[in-house]
Specification:
Blueprint: E1 10-14, H1 19-30, E2 34-38
Parallel strand pairs: 1-2
Amino acid sequence: MARKPLQDKVALITGSSRGIGLATARELAARGARIVLNARPGPRL
């Protein structure tokens, strides 16, 4: 699958303090998306 740039996109990621949510947040940020993070344990964000 081709990796599209995401400069004009915003992603809301739940469960972003670890696991799949964290990996997704890192990948989308690396591709230029603006990200909004959400997780229950706030200090880990």
